[in-house]
Design brief:
This protein is an all-alpha fold. The protein has one helix and no strands. InterPro entries: T_SNARE_dom.
Amino acid sequence: MRDALDEHAELIDDITYNADKQNTAMDKVMARVAFVLNSNSTRAHQTDESAPD
């Protein structure tokens, strides 16, 4: 019984570790997406301001 509990605890640790790695990867992706969207938005505003009326 004790071995089964230890094995279960190790499995939960592995799942938690993998979930943390996935969250970190997703945070990096979302930061990159936000950066690109912000860059595009800034570029669009610059284009609008330089366009003749």
